[in-house]
Amino acid sequence: MAWWRARARYWFDNTMARGTPALIGWLGLASALLVLAVASLAVLIAPRDAAEQGSWSGVVWRSLLRTLDPGVMGDDEGTASYLALMLASTVGGIFIVSSLISVLTTGLNNRLTRLRKGRSRIVEHGHTVLLGWSDQVFTVLEELIEADHSGRRSCIAILADLDKGDMDEAIRIKIGRTGRIRIVCRRGNPLKVADLALVSPATARSVIVLAPQTDEPDIDVIKVLLSLNAQPWRETRPPIVAPVRTAANMPAALLAGGEHARIVDADDIAVRLIVQSHRQCGLSAVCAELLDFQGHELYLHPEPSLAGSTFADALHAFERGVPVGLWHPDGSLTLNPASRTVVGHDDELIMLAEDDELIGLADRRPHIAEEAISGLPVTLPEPGSTLILGWNPRAPKIIERLDGCARPGSQLLVAALRDDDPRERLPRLANTTVSFTRCDDTARTDLEALDVRSHHSVIVLADESHDPQRADARTLVTLLHLRDLAPYGDRPFSVIVELRDDANREIAQITQAEDLIVSDKLITQVMTQLSESPRLHQVFTALLHPEGPEIYLKPATGYLRPGAPATFATLLEAARRRGETALGYRRRSRFHEPPGYGIVLNPDRRAPLTLTEDDLVIVLAGR
């Protein structure tokens, strides 16, 4: 008997542990038993009173009403036994209803608490998934919101191992209004396969993996990629975009991500931007404009009506938008093709445009002002000696790349606050002689001892031994010293600066540095662009590759006569005759004016245009 009692108690405890639904079920059963018992006893003890209520079924109904609403008893009449049974029904109902309200309140509070913790699974289709949390998440959100040109209602799901309320509050403060885009945060570890299911990556439009702010971010990114591959994917997988900080981890990341992953070598992009900016001041501002959804972007645009035409004809065929290359059916591409290149029937044009919906053919060929086209040669200054202030893990690659484009016998001085000689970590260089001196680049006396005026260019590297704000603060002090040592108008050297936080860019403009590179933001923008159009991965890779066509900022005097009335169509033609593709121009007088910093891409082709001898033309050209 004791064994059956223990088994019954164990079964009851298990049912009670199932939560609110089980408790409601037990209360419902107790209510039914109470009503049936009272009705049956009334028929047996007070048959006359029961008959007046319509026999047993009528008493059941009256008893049920008294159980749910004690006020019904006020109208009861009958014998003492009948009234006692109705009172028992009412008192029992008070306890049952009170318990039911308590259970419902507790269950609702538990459900709300669960929702606040962000542990419920979302049911979305065609949404964007962000895995991880860092300062880059706000840049991604801003770009995705801006990319929602059509105003369609869409969703961005964020999975991070943080409190959902804290994430919602940070987004509300940093981003503000999000338009028609809904941002849904869920708490979970992106490294765990079970937690990934909370944001439904299998039905997503794209997945972006953010590098965590840890000592080994690549390890976590690779683990997330492996966890994504363990998901029950459908036949069509969404593109996955992820960054890798160390080039040595690229093979592992590519294997972990699979064929659908687009792995961005973050350090390699930063190195290439710094090196190319060393040769072409202002390049980072052009790249920021190309990658920002608020400005002009690159699109793949099919135009069957141009099949069989030459690329020269395609350059002047559009009202707004500049063709910069061809995307071939086999997945290959050609940037800045020769003028006589024929556009194939299945080729797509790689277009620079403000929006893909604004790309359209012109009704007539624009007028070319032949008298405004200049025949002067275009010469770029040869880089001389270079000074690098500071040191970070990217410095050896930067020096190696600088050596690759330097003339034999070039000189490079590294000045950093280090006790060891960093030259021991450098590969063997062919064209550059590197020297080192210990220097605190925030100390005026140390900078004076370097004789910065004797160098052709100065590269200021971000200090990664400090947090971003502290590192940028040190960089700003260095820039102020450089400006004081050589005012902008009398400065014989150019200054290329690496910042870590884009919020400090406008502050740094006071120092009038020629190029400000916020590598983290540019890398985040590349990832966002790839999440929207995965095929652009090859385009960006080709643009930053040292062997292919590159973006140059060349003197305007080699394209248009200074002060001569012209149009952008005339500038396009002048660049075409040099085997180049004009993308826009940069006004010297507005070099340090945000947000565009003097850069104008893809202007109206027919609008009047007059350039001065100090302005620059932005072109895509071979080396």
Task: Give structural attributes.
623 residues, alpha/beta, Helix Hairpins, Rossmann fold, Alpha-Beta Plaits, 24 strands, 39% helix
Give a concise summary:
By secondary structure, the chain is of the alpha/beta class.
Provide a descriptive summary of the structure in words.
- The chain has 623 residues and is α/β, with parallel strands linked by helices.
- The chain has four domains: 16-117, Orthogonal Bundle (Helix Hairpins), CATH 1.10.287; 128-259, NAD(P)-binding Rossmann-like Domain (Rossmann fold), CATH 3.40.50; 272-377 and 525-621, Regulator of K+ conductance, C-terminal domain (Alpha-Beta Plaits), CATH 3.30.70; 386-455 and 457-492, Rossmann fold (3-Layer(aba) Sandwich).
- The chain contains 20 helices and 24 strands.
- Strands 3-2-1-4-5-6 form a six-stranded parallel sheet, sandwiched between helices. It has a six-stranded parallel sheet with strand order 15-14-13-16-17-18. It has a four-stranded antiparallel sheet with strand order 7-11-9-10.
- Strand 16, helix 16 (468-485) and strand 17 (494-499) form a beta-alpha-beta unit.
Tally the beta strands: 24
Q: Poorly predicted ranges (pLDDT <50, ≥5 residues)?
A: none
Measured as a percent range, the helix fraction is: 25-40%
Strands of the widest sheet, in order across it, are 3-2-1-4-5-6
The termini sit apart by 94 Å
Radius of gyration: 35 Å
Question: Looking at the structure, what is the overall shape?
Answer: elongated
Average pLDDT works out at: 81
**Please, what is the CATH homologous superfamily of the largest domain?**
Regulator of K+ conductance, C-terminal domain
Q: Percent of residues in beta strands?
A: 15-25%
CATH level-1 class of the largest domain: Alpha Beta
Question: Could you name the CATH topology of the largest domain?
Answer: Alpha-Beta Plaits
Q: Please work out how many helical segments DSSP would assign.
A: 20
CATH architecture of the largest domain: 2-Layer Sandwich
Question: Structural class, from secondary structure content?
Answer: alpha/beta
The biggest sheet, with number of strands, parallel, antiparallel or mixed sense and barrel status, is: 6 strands, parallel
